[in-house]
Amino acid sequence: MKVPLFDMARELAAVRVEIDAAIAQVLDSGVFIGGPEVAAFERELAVATGSAHAIGVSSGTDALHAIYLALGIGPGDEVVTTPLTFFATAGSAARLGARIVFADVDDDALTLDPHAAASVCGSRTRAIVPVHLFGRLAAMPAVDVPIVEDAAQSLGTGAPRGLAAAYSFFPTKNVGALGDAGAVVTGDAALADRITLLRSHGARPKYHHVAIGGNFRLDALQAAVLRVKLAQLATTTATRRAHAADYRARFAAAQLPAELRLPGHTDEHVYHQFVIRTPRRDALRDHLRAAGVDTEVYYPSPLHVQPCFADLGYRAGSFPIAERACTEVLALPIHPTLSEQARAYVVDQVAAFFAR
Ligand SMILES: *Cc1c(COP(=O)(O)O)cnc(C)c1O
Asked: Is 89 in the pocket of ligand 1 (CB under 6 A)?
């Protein structure tokens, strides 16, 4: 049996007629940048996330970048975040000249430890950036510093609790575009206005540049596709949660050794990924690969030891919990079209590994 980690073709097939119609409508309209599809998607995303403002942008990376830029973050400023995340969380602030200050993650949640984050905040801290890793909400640090949420993996968890949240619609995310796309959501009208200005070269009106921004715009074609996908979010999220519950029941029945750790459950978890842990991760991954089960490691290396951040002065050992997680985590298939037979097969194969 073959069990892919994602199954974009089958997911797309379920909404293909609506997507074809949405694309045709954009082609007929002749409006490809901005326009009514982008505006409608922004309204629908604001409703779906329970926030006052949603601004479509070109990617999740650009959503983070636009928020940092709008907050005026630059040289001399510090941004506190987790080392266990995709590069963009930190890279989008570092490229503005900010210094990245890492704090370790919570061992159970694998998200930024709010106490560790608070302890590294200082007079230069301009933002704290918790990442809702794998679709699980991170705890919010209780500090008087703007909180920017990297919500790239957590669409469907409800309204942002911080100042602003960055979403990604990379094709494999819980709502995926047919290419790159992203959005910022916020309850702050002034911040929303600033990001809207910055995403189009800071021009207001056209050709009168009041700020230095960039081209962070969302394409009308992507917006039209995303409207179709967003309408399915409640259903696909319920399916992901049901898959996670099913995995848990099957793993419990298989009575596996304690060295296998299942992801901690919370009610808001949207299971972008279902990530198990074991010190024998690489051998388990090889076993699953040979059995036809695709898995992935998010992430093989924490950010504080990446070559581009060498000048920050961290080293192996700086954040032991994140470092150990990188050697133990393994994401199993949990996409909405995953069959019951496939889930049973995945658990059987994991059990077979531990029975060897
Ligand atoms: C996907 C992702 C991003 C970046 O999103 P893109 O749309 O690929 O630019 C940022 N942070 C996290 C945690 C992500 O998973």
From this structure: yes
pLDDT mean over 296-303: 98
Residue 267: pLDDT over 90: yes
- How many angstroms does the Cα of residue 169 sit away from the middle of ligand 1? 8
Burial 47-64 (b: 16+ CB within 10 A, else e): ebbebebbbbbbbbbbbb
The tens digit of pLDDT for each residue in 80-115 reads 999 999 999 999 999 999 999 999 999 999 999 999
Q: Does the Cβ of 177 fall within 6 Å of ligand 1? A: no
- Expressed in angstroms and rounded, the spacing between residue 28 Cα and the centre of ligand 1 is 31
CA distance linking residue 336 with residue 237, whole number of Å: 8
Q: Which atom of ligand 1 is nearest to the CA of 181?
A: 7
Q: Is the pLDDT of residue 153 over 90?
A: yes
Coil, helix or strand at residue 57: strand
The owner of tokens 């709502």 is: 175
Q: Which of 86, 87, 175, 178 to mutate to test ligand 1, by most ligand atoms within 8 A of the CB atom? A: 86
Q: Which domains does the chain have, with CATH numbers?
A: 8-230 (3.40.640.10), 233-354 (3.90.1150.10)
Q: What is the pTM of this model?
A: 0.97
